[in-house]
Every structure is written in structure tokens, then in C-alpha cells.
Specification:
Layout (H helix, E strand, L loop, with lengths): L15 H12 L8 E3 H17 L10 H13 L1 H7 L5 H8 L4 H14 L5 E8 L2 E11 L16 H17 L7 H13 L16 E2 L1 H5 L5 H7 L8 E3 L2 H6 L9 H16 L5 H16 L7 H25 L2 H24 L5 H12 L2 E5 L17 H17 L21 E3 L4 E5 L14 H18 L20 H19 L13 H26 L12 H12 L2 E3 L1 H10 L5 H9 L3 H7 L19
Helix pairs in contact: 1-21, 2-14, 3-14, 5-12, 6-10, 6-12, 7-8, 7-13, 8-12, 13-22, 15-16, 15-18, 15-20, 18-20, 18-21, 19-20
Length: 639
Amino acid sequence: MTVFELDPSVRAQDDLFRHVNGRWLAEVEIPADEHAAGSFIDLRNASERAIREIVTGLSGSDPGTEAALVEHLFGSFMDTEKVAARGVDPLVPLLAEIDAIGTVDDLLDYFGASLRRGTGAPIGLEVDADPGEPSRYALFAGQSGIRLPDEEYYRLEQHAQILAEYTGLVTRLLTMAGVTTSAGPLIVELEKEVASHHWDKVRTRDMRAMYNPTTPAELDASGVAWSRLLAAAGVPALDTIIVAQPSFLTEMAELLVPGRLEEWKDWCRWSLVASLAPYLPEPLAQANFDFYGTVLQGIPQQRERWRRGIALVERTLGEAVGKLYVERHFPPAAKHRMDELVANLLVAYRHSITELDWMTEPTRAEALAKLDRFTPKIGYPEKWLDYSALKIEPDDLIGNVLRAAEFHTADELGKLGGPIRKHEWLMTPQTVNAYYHPLRNEIVFPAAILQPPFFDAEADDAVNYGAIGAVIGHEIGHGFDDQGSTCDGDGRLRDWWTEADREAFNARTKALIAQYSALAPVQLPDLRVNGELTVGENIGDLGGLTIAHDAWRLAVGDADPDPVDGIPAAQRLFLAWARTWQTKRRDEALRQQIATDPHSPEEFRCNQVVRNLPAFYDAFGVTESDAAWLAPEERVKIW
């Protein structure tokens, strides 16, 4: 049974988030090695401890097994004496490759090799379903080349101090690596130029603008022999590459010229050292953390080494430990209950779409057809990734990191020309998260999120629908947000809307953008939410809770369930919703979230959604005199 520790000094009708979480917010202290505290962090830490128990129990694994790979990777990270003894020697052959660069063609060859092993390049590559024909894989190429969280950090005055600190980090890490002592400011200036050609984060939400099938000849016509870089990265011969930001690749021709070769070589040295700093001797790892952890997110203390080692195992061999995690921590009964919840949410979405008053029949038919084609994936993949081609040595940490990157790059590129791996997951079972993939029209719920406070097999229906039900609804809702609604039920980028319906949809999303753009967090009232950046997640939240409530009503029937602990069921649903968003962030972390994250701060994910839901008003008797009140004509209902 779920018990809520409510704050009696705050009314739900004024601030649901603090009514449920106010006492916790006043009492909790963020751990010294965390950027935040809360529901997601607690579950992530529980998953991390479970993986540690698995990993440390693999001593003496049979050679050639996945267990041995896990054991040796973790062991190579934990052997601090060996890491310290080797120092920066593992960088020497890689730095020699950079020293040998004499032409722009050499530079492009190096970028390709660097992409293959995960040490950085001014463009990024990704393999995914082709939006024009989602039954096949395509290669996507897009902007990269900066090591701050977003292009705005290089141009906005509000980030000037961070940029200065970053310049200091570049100089400090390169000096510690024995590379150079004077190139830091020049490297940052080059990154600033690269960032000036980046599309901003709102523009990159436009899936149509990001879909630009391009031939290799057209790619090279930009003024840079990008196809040479692709070949060096191990990309097979392709007829078409999907270019995400065409202007970026064209404008980079101004920078990738012989006269700037030495600047680029310095940048390559920096990108190499920065990529590998977490795996070099502790003074370099600490300097790296001092900026990325403390300056950017306000975290005073670096995590214990075992936690960083588990993170490396998760990134590298996540499905290998995922198999064992599922065996120990995900009972079949939980999967069965989730199957039922997902089915009920899909039924509720069907009811909602059928009854929408702003949608015409042609678009409604397409939306229902898309809903019918949703593929739910719950708990864990049916087929696991094969790691047999990966070589891990017990005493070669840097080599392990580089070989792992090359293994995963080769696996991704190996998909090109083959059938879509419908069994594939983009998260491990032990990840505390969920996702919707618009090009595959699938919703995925890893095992680790299917635990309290999100899912509790012992809790009443109202609590589960208000928590995990809303998460399920959120992910389904992404299929119909500003991005997902541009793809049909097969994942194809196609406009399936009538013009009038698209205008009606856009009018509602604009109203939601305006609502969120006016919000300032209590913690940092000088900030404003970026309503355009967060609109997709806000649509997901709004639709998710709306449909979760509808699904709950369908599940319980006409009669209201009995109260629990004296709290009516309808109220418990919303209390459970608020409990899932229990989060407290450091100021620096909140600033970075608002600057870069497509998710709104948690207080608004809770409060602004319920202000738009008539069911919340009914459950708590909200009136015009209450702070949560939003005039009926201002409330947004999309799905």
C-alpha cells in the first residue's frame, strides 16, 4: 500500500507538487556526488547497486564468456595502480597520428578513425531507420565538434563565466597530458566558430528539416571531401546519406582549409584527451570532473570509483549484465501486469481519438491506424546483443575503452544494407527510463522503471495509473506530439493530416508553448522555461496523464473505488502523479536543464499538466480562488 507524506502547509489546489513533496524538499539533502535527489535518482542508484552485486560476483569467470568480459572491464577500471603506472603513455601512439597530419585529406582520415573509436570529430554519425522508408537502415550525418552542452554556451552572455572556466580546463588537461600549454584559448575560439554554424536545439526538433537524403557526390560538393571521412570511419559504400543539418556541412568548408590545419590538430589533441580523461590517472579524471561535474552541475564531489566503473560496464556491456539483472529483479508477474496496463492505455487512447471534437474523419482514421501499429516492448529484449567480437584485457583500460567504441561503431555500421533489427532495444533493462521511437513506432519500458514509486504490484489501481500509467501514456503520446505526428504507423515521415486538422493541432501546441514559456522555477525565478524546446515532452505529459486517468476510469467502471487511508481514489491518482516527479536539483544543474533539456523542470511537469485537466479540478474541488486554477478557455486538450 502506498502511503503519501503530504505537506499540510501547502494545499493541492494551490501547488500539487509541493503538497505531495514539500516536506521531502525541506528535509532532503542532495548527496555530495549527485546533481539532484529524487525518485529517478533513487531508482537509478538501486539499479546501480544491483549491477554492482552482479559484476563483483563474477570473479574467476570462464575465459571467452561474457561474464569474463564484464569482470575484466570492471577490473581494468578498478586497478588504479596500473592506471597510474601507465600514466598518459596510452595517448602516445594516438597523439603521433595527429602529429603526422600534413594535409586536409590527412585530417579527414584522422576524423574518420577518431569517429570509429569515439574520440571526437566535427560531425557525428548515426544509423537508424530511414524516415523515407523505415523498413531499411540509413546513415545519418550531422553537426558535432563542440564539448560544451549546447551551441548557446559559446554565444550567450549568461554562459560567459562557464566559457572562461572551460578555456581553463582545456589548458589544464592538455598540460597534464604533456601535450601543450598555450593552445587552450585558440581551441575554444575554433569551437566557437564551429558552434556558430550549429542549428539551435529548437530547429533540430523539425524532423522534416532534418531529413535530407544526399548522394556522396552531393556531400562532397559542399567543399569538403566528407565521403573520405566516412570511408575512414569504416562506412560501407552507400548511395545515400541522410544529412541532418545541410548548412552546417557546407559552412564547415570555410574552416577545414590548409591554413587552419595546425588549429585543427590542436583541437584533435584536445578532443582526444578530453574523451579519455575519465580513464586516465585520477588527477586528469578529477580535473575533468571539476568542470563537467562541479562547474556545469554544481556537484561538489566525484562519485566513488566503483560507481564510475559500473557506469563504464553499463555503457560497454549493458546487455550482458542486463540478462542477469532481469533474472534476479524482474519477475514474470510484473511483466504480465504491465502488459495489462499498456493494453488499457491503448484502449483509452483509442476512445480519446475517436471522440476528439477538433479532428476530422480522414485524420482520425490515420491516427487510429497508427495506434493499432504501436509495438510495446516491456522489461527486456527478446534477443540480446552478441559481444563475442569484443576484446577486453584485464590490464588495459584505455585499450578496452577504445576497442569497445570500435566494436559498437562496427555493429552500428554493420546494420547498413541489412533488415531492421526489430528485436533491438536502445536502452538496457536496468535503465530507469522509457522511450518512444517515431521511426519504429514502438514504446519501450525497461524493467528498472517498473518499481515503486512508478509501479507497485501491491498498490491500488489509482496509484499505478497515476504513476506508471501516466508514463505509458506519455510514451504513447510521443507518437502524436509535434515530432511523432509527422510519422505514420509504419514510422514513415509522411504528412497524414488534413490541412485544417494540422492547423487545429498547431493552435493547441502554440497555446501549450505559451503556457510553459511563462513559467519560472521557484528555486531560480530569473529563469524561464523554453516552451518551444520542451513542447514535445509537455504534450507527452499532458496526454499521458489525461489518458492514464481515462484508462483508470475504464478499468474501475462506474462505481468509485473505496478510499485508502481516507483519501479518495481520484485524489490518489493525482498524488501518485506528483510523487513520481519528486526531485530536488542543484542550482547549476537546474540552469543546465533549462538551457539544454527538452524536459521541463519537474515542478511544472507536475503542476502545469494538472492545471489543464478537468478531472483534477473535480478531484480536489479547485475553484477560481485557488492558485492552480486556469480559466477553462485557457486550458489545453490535445489528445
